[in-house]
């Protein structure tokens, strides 16, 4: 660790010495509201012929750097919707440049509503939302679900080939994906999807989505109220009220939301467990849920000047009611001979509350850009459960068993993160560090004593330091970085530290990205080293009762999975292509075995490190505009090389899965917008699951706004033909499980009214993000 720190410090000194001897032109761009202006074109021209010398784009904070090769040169700065500005290269530090709106150009942008433009910029695939049909998508979640390679539904966002991404709104880390439902799509300017995050992001992050909202308009008080109701199994209602007050450099914003949701999770399940005998369970599970949630947010922000801003944000989230009614009827056979019937019925409640506090400083000190964040999280979860099992043997004998349990979790997190950026030579150098402390207490109690009571605690201290340098050589843009992470985890049982389950990890993760324009095409090749750290619930030592034949437990001895990712991206006009190859070492898999030798009829389901895994993901998106019709066709392929434990040995699960989405938007007369979306998946293997059937879906939506966009209505129907799921077979050691999930179409209505609505200027980005996700 000392050697690595010495290497990083020496590298920093070398970089700084080079930068001081080079003549670098630098500056920072802002708009009329004194907000950073990102992705503006900055070009160096020679005089007197105005020949192109080199070019770049401004960063997220509006800063840019170029290397001047002669004193007889000039800088041209341009961006869509703004008047072009010319600046001399002397002095080398141009300082802050404010761009003024071009009213004529802005008018053209607002009126035009084509399919969103997709292009590669820096490390991301950028989709321009402003002025496109995506403005009418509905919520932020609805918008993400329409992006190539991204799916978003019911608060779960996934990037094809990367899983759940980290999401940022104006640089602030999203703590809860419900924030996406509180964000309106017509407030979003652009969305950036990063498939291979660089060294500034935690090594556990596989993908990043950065959402940028439109610039605030006006001062005073404004609000935005969104009401949504949906019927699927029963009615769901959600109401979100956002408000903002802005006066000069002071900004106060807040949010209050309430959600009342009813849903079902019904399925047919067949299990074969190969223990002392072959046990077969054929079950029908009826699961009815009623969830009530309230959330609130308040943020204060003050911008002293264009170089310094300070703020604080508090979030409160409470779920007073999360009630599960469970009813499962099972026929049990032993070696294909009827053995008994089991009727299990009961309930489970999940009551939780959480507090999150973030404070930040964002500023410019000389040529250094400073970003500091400190976070605190306090969470409590209580899960009581009561199940009554009635057993009827093959000869008619009846017996009953009640199983009562309660699980409690308490989580505490403190984190701080500091990032400093400085123009250097032909680019920009970043150096940062992050510290996170987490404390998780888990207790499990079983009243009847069927399972052992347990109380465990995990305390972790995590420290990271990273360095990243981005520069341009002619038309080639290069970004390279390295990240070092140290994690010390202490595990306690009943207050006593268990040495063999306490771990220390030291890892170094490199990253590099190359971007190059070729004609009108943009090419990008990137590599990132990363890690998957198991969430705390996988590391618990307690065992949870599922039914009299199946228990579920954690594994405190789980090791993290080290992952290497190689990605290639191509964008050309309305075509976008992505492919990524992922190699994982010590992959974490689901595994089932006998609970004990004394009772081999009971199986224990848990998680283990078993084999290495390899996966290839590819996607191709075509998105032209044909009159009033704006289609978007995305083709995706998953090919894996994956070993899976099956009864009797190990098999390779290498069958590919293909899928497609075909989204269609029609701009109709009288300002109506019509969306028709289709999608399908083929059979194939995904990790230890075999998808045995094809499945498909059809969604339709209709949008209309009134009173100059202040009032809008959207009607949406999803999965019109109840066809979105297929039979899936899961293999996990000595157990084979076949699941047939029931689905039902849904119809939803969104009403939205806004008055002088403006987004907050809050610039906090958060800290300790990797540990938060594990909580």
Low-confidence region ranges: 1-22, 103-115
Biggest β-sheet strands, sense, barrel:
30 strands, antiparallel
Our estimate of the beta-strand percent is over 45%
Overall shape: it is globular
| Alpha-beta content class | mainly beta
Taking Cα atoms only, what radius of gyration do you get, to the nearest Å? 28 Å
The percent range for helix content is: under 10%
Mean pLDDT metric: 85
Question: Tally the helices: what do you get?
Answer: 6
N→C terminal distance: 27 Å
Question: Could you tell me the number of beta strands?
Answer: 49
Features:
30-stranded antiparallel sheet, 6-stranded mixed sheet, 775 residues, mainly beta, globular, 64% strand, disordered N terminus
Walkthrough of the structure:
With 775 residues, the protein is mainly beta. Helix content is 6%, strand content 64%. The strands form 6 sheets. It has a 30-stranded antiparallel β-sheet that branches.
Short description:
The protein has 775 residues and is mainly beta. The strands form six sheets. The protein has a 30-stranded antiparallel beta sheet that branches.
Secondary structure layout:
Layout: H1 2-21, E1 24-30, E2 41-46, E3 52-57, E4 63-67, E5 73-78, E6 85-88, E7 93-98, H2 103-111, E8 118-121, E9 124-128, H3 140-144, E10 150-153, E11 156-159, E12 166-169, E13 172-173, H4 178-181, E14 188-194, E15 208-213, E16 220-231, E17 235-247, E18 250-264, E19 267-274, E20 278-305, E21 308-334, E22 337-349, E23 351-365, E24 368-393, E25 398-424, E26 427-446, E27 454-473, E28 476-493, E29 496-497, E30 503-518, E31 521-532, H5 536-539, E32 543-547, E33 550-553, E34 561-572, E35 575-585, E36 588-594, E37 603-609, E38 613-622, E39 629-646, E40 649-653, E41 657-667, E42 673-681, E43 684-686, E44 689-691, E45 695-706, E46 711-718, E47 728-732, E48 735-741, E49 746-755, H6 769-774
Parallel strand pairs: 1-7, 12-15, 33-37
Antiparallel strand pairs: 1-4, 2-3, 2-5, 5-6, 8-9, 9-14, 10-11, 12-13, 14-15, 16-17, 16-49, 17-18, 18-20, 19-20, 19-48, 20-21, 21-22, 21-23, 22-24, 23-24, 24-25, 25-26, 26-27, 27-28, 28-29, 28-30, 30-31, 31-34, 32-33, 34-35, 35-38, 36-37, 38-39, 39-40, 39-41, 41-42, 42-45, 43-44, 44-47, 45-46, ...
């Amino acid at each position: 660790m000392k050697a690595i720190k010495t290497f990083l410090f020496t590298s920093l000194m070398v970089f700084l010495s080079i930068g001081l001897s080079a003549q670098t032109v630098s500056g920072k761009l802002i708009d009329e509201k004194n907000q950073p202006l990102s992705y503006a074109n900055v070009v160096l021209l020679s005089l007197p012929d105005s020949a192109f010398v080199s070019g770049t784009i401004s960063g997220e904070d509006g800063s840019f750097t170029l290397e001047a090769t002669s004193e007889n040169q000039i800088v041209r700065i341009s961006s869509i919707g703004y008047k072009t500005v010319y600046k001399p290269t002397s002095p080398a530090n141009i300082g802050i440049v404010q761009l003024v709106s071009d009213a004529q150009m802005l008018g053209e942008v607002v009126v035009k509503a084509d399919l969103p433009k997709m292009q590669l910029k820096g490390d991301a695939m950028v989709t321009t939302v402003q002025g496109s049909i995506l403005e009418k998508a509905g919520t932020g979640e609805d918008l993400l679900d329409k992006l190539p390679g991204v799916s978003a539904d019911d608060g779960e966002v996934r990037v094809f080939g990367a899983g759940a991404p980290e999401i940022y709104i104006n640089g602030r880390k999203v703590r809860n994906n419900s924030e996406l439902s509180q964000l309106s799509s017509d407030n979003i300017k652009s969305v950036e999807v990063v498939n291979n995050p660089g060294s500034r992001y935690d090594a556990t992050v596989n993908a990043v989505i950065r959402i940028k909202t439109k610039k605030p308009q006006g001062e005073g008080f404004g609000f935005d109220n969104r009401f949504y109701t949906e019927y699927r199994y029963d009615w769901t209602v959600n109401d979100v009220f956002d408000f903002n007050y802005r006066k000069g450099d002071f900004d106060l914003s807040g949010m209050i939301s309430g959600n009342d949701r009813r849903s079902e999770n019904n399925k047919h399940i067949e299990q074969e467990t190969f223990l002392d005998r072959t046990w077969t369970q054929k079950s029908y599970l009826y699961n009815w849920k009623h969830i009530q949630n309230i959330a609130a947010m308040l943020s204060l922000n003050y911008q002293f000047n264009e170089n310094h801003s300070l703020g604080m944000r508090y979030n409160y989230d409470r779920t007073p009611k999360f009630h599960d009614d469970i009813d499962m009827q099972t026929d049990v056979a032993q070696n294909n001979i009827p053995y008994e019937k089991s009727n299990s019925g009961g309930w489970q409640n999940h009551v939780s509350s959480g507090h999150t506090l973030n404070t930040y400083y964002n500023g410019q000190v000389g040529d250094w850009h400073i970003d500091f964040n400190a976070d605190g999280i306090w969470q409590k979860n209580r899960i009581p459960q009561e199940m009554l099992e009635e057993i009827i043997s093959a000869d008619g004998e009846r017996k009953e068993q009640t199983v009562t349990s309660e699980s409690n979790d308490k989580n505490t997190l403190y984190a701080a993160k500091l990032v400093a950026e400085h123009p250097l030579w032909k680019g920009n150098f970043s150096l940062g560090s992050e510290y996170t402390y987490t404390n998780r207490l888990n207790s499990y109690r079983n009243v009847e004593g069927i399972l052992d009571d347990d109380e465990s605690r995990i305390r972790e201290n995590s420290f990271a330091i990273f360095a990243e340098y981005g520069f341009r050589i002619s038309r080639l843009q290069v970004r390279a970085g390295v990240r070092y992470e140290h994690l010390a985890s202490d595990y306690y049982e009943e207050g006593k530290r268990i040495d063999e389950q306490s771990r220390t990890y030291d890892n170094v993760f490199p990253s590099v990205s190359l971007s190059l324009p070729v004609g009108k095409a943009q090419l990008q090749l990137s590599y990132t080293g990363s890690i998957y750290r198991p969430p705390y619930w996988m590391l618990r030592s307690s065992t949870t009762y599922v039914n009299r034949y199946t228990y579920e437990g954690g594994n405190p001895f789980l090791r993290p999975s080290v992952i290497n990712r190689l990605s290639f991206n191509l964008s050309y006009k309305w075509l976008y292509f992505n492919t990524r190859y992922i190699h994982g070492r010590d992959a974490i898999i689901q595994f089932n075995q006998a609970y004990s030798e004394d009772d081999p009829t009971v199986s224990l389901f848990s998680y283990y490190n078993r084999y290495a895994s390899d996966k290839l993901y590819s996607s191709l998106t075509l998105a032209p505009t044909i009159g009033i019709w704006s289609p978007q066709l995305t083709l995706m392929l998953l090919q894996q090389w994956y070993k899976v434990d099956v009864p009797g040995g190990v098999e390779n699960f290498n069958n590919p899965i293909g899928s497609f989405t075909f989204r269609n938007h029609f701009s109709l007369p009288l300002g109506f917008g019509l969306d028709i979306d289709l999608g399908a998946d083929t059979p194939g293997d995904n990790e230890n699951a075999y998808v045995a059937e094809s499945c498909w879906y059809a969604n339709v939506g209709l949008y209309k706004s009134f009173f100059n966009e202040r009032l809008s209505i959207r009607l949406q129907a999803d999965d019109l033909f109840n066809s979105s799921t297929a039979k899936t077979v899961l293999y996990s050691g000595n157990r084979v499980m076949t699941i047939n999930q029931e689905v039902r179409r849904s119809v939803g209505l969104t009403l939205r009214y806004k008055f002088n609505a403006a987004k907050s200027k809050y610039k906090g980005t958060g800290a300790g993000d990797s540990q938060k996700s594990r909580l």
